[in-house]
Amino acid sequence: MIRHEHHTIEQRARRLHERFEALYGHRPEGVWQAPGRVNLIGEHTDYNLGYVLPFAIDRQTLIAVRRVDPDAAHADEIALASTMDASGDVPEVTRMRLADLAPGTPGGWAAYPAAVSHVLATEYAGRICGFDLLVDSTVPVGSGLSSSHALEVATIVALNELFHLGIDAERMVRLTQRAENDFVGAPTGIMDQSASLLSQAGHALFLDCRSFASRAVPLPLTARGLNVLVIDTRVAHALVDGGYAQRRASCEAAAARLGVSSLREIDEVHLLDELVEPLRRRARHIVSENGRVLRTVQALECGDLNLVGQLLTESHASMRDDYEISCPELDLAVSSALDAGALGARMTGGGFGGSAIALIDESVRPQVESAIRRAFDRAGYAEPGIFVVAPAQGAGRV
Ligand code: GLA
Predict the structure, then answer these.
(1) CATH T-level assignment (fold) for domain 9-215
(2) Which atom of ligand 1 is nearest to the CA of 186?
(3) 217, 237, 328, 359: which could join 353 in a potential S-S bond, CB 3.0 to 4.6 Å?
C-alpha cells in the first residue's frame, strides 16, 4: 500500500487523475477533497443539540469522479474503486445500479459513497445518474478521525456540483447524517461531517448543534509554538457497536425524565440530582462538557492556551468517569502525555478506542512521544501511531 502523506493535495490529485484514466479508460471530470477531523472539545454533545469545537486535519480523502453518459445503456450504474484496495496495481471495481443500493449492499468502505448516492437518488430522483469514482485517502481508517465521514463529504460535495443539485451546507450535513444513520447503521450526530465541510484553515469550528450557527475560532498553534499531537491507540473503535447507541439512549431517557426536549436545555449540573445513576453521570458529562466548550472558546479568544489544556484534561476525566467511554489505552495515552509535559490531553471522537489528542509545546514533542511509546510498550499494548495534525481547510474541489 503506497501512502502519499508527504505529497501536496495537488500532487495527489494529479496522480489520482492518471490512475482514474488508467482504470476507467476516460478522464475524470474533477477531483474533490474532504478532510478528516479531530475534535478539540465537545464530545457526545452533538446529538444532545449542544456545542462542539472540532477542526479539520491536514489528512484528506480525495475522489475523482466522472458522470456516466445519460444515454448509455448502463446510465444508472455507479462504479466504486479505491487506490487503497489494490491487491496488485489495479484496484477492484464494485459496480451497482443506483436502484439496487440498499443497507448492507455494498459493504466495506464502498458503503459510504453508496450511502450518499442512495440518499441523493431518493431525494433528487431523476436528477442524478451513474458515475465512476476512484478514492484515495490519507485519513487513517478506524482511528476515530472520521475517515468515513471524509469519504461521505467528498462524495456529496462532488455529486452536488456535478449534478447541479444546489444543496447548501446545512442540508449536506443532514443528508450525510441520514446516509450514516439509515444506510451505514451508525446512529451518529452532525459534528464530523460539519467539521469536514465547514472548517477553515488555522481555525477550529465552533458549532451550535441546535441552531446550526457556526463560527471559525482562530487556533494559534504555530504562532505559539504549540502542536496538537494525535495518539492513535490502534484499538479499533466502531460506531455501529452498541456503546455509542446506548449512551445516546441514556441521554434521551435523562432528558425525558427531566421533561426537556434535549440535555442542551439544562445548563447547571445540580438540576440533574433527581436522576438515578447511571443516567445522572451520563447527563452530567453532557451538561459539563457544553460548559467546557464555551470556556475553551473564551480561553482561545483570550490566548490562554494553558487554560485550554486544562479544559481538555477535565473533558477526558468526565468521559472516563461519568460517560464511561474511554479505555485503558486511551487513559494511558492521556496520562503519559500529561506526565511528560503536555498542556492538556483527552480522547477524541466517539470513544471505546480510536485516538487521543495532546496539546503540547513543540519543544517537548520528542519526550512526549517517547514517554507514550515507553508506557505502551511496558503495558504490553500495540505500538501507537503518533503524529502532529494542523487545522486545515474544509472540503471542496481541488
Ligand atoms: C462520533 C460521531 C459524532 C459525535 C462523536 C462524539 O464521531 O460520528 O457525531 O457524536 O462521535 O462526540
Answers:
(1) Ribosomal Protein S5; domain 2 (3.30.230)
(2) 8
(3) 237
CB of 19 shorter than 6 A to ligand 1: no
Instruction: Render the burial of 225-245: b for 16+ CB within 10 Å, e for the rest.
Output: ebbbbbbbbbbebebeeebbe
Task: Please indicate whether residue 289, judged by its CB atom, sits closer than 6 Å to ligand 1.
Answer: no
Q: Is 325 in the pocket of ligand 1 (CB under 6 A)?
A: no
Please say if 192 is a catalytic residue.
yes
C-alpha cell at 103: 443497507
pTM reported for the whole predicted model: 0.95
What number of other Cβ atoms are within 10 A of residue 302's Cβ?
Answer: 10
Each of the 398 residues of the chain gets a pLDDT tens digit; together they read 344 457 899 999 999 999 999 999 999 999 999 999 999 999 999 999 999 999 999 999 999 999 999 888 899 999 999 998 766 678 899 999 999 999 888 888 999 999 999 999 999 999 999 999 999 999 999 899 999 999 999 999 999 999 999 999 999 999 999 999 998 888 999 999 999 999 999 999 999 999 999 999 999 999 999 999 999 999 987 665 689 999 999 999 999 999 999 999 999 999 999 999 999 999 999 999 999 999 999 999 999 999 999 999 999 999 999 999 999 999 999 999 999 999 999 999 999 999 999 999 999 999 999 999 999 999 999 999 999 999 999 999 99
Q: Domain limits of the chain?
A: 9-215
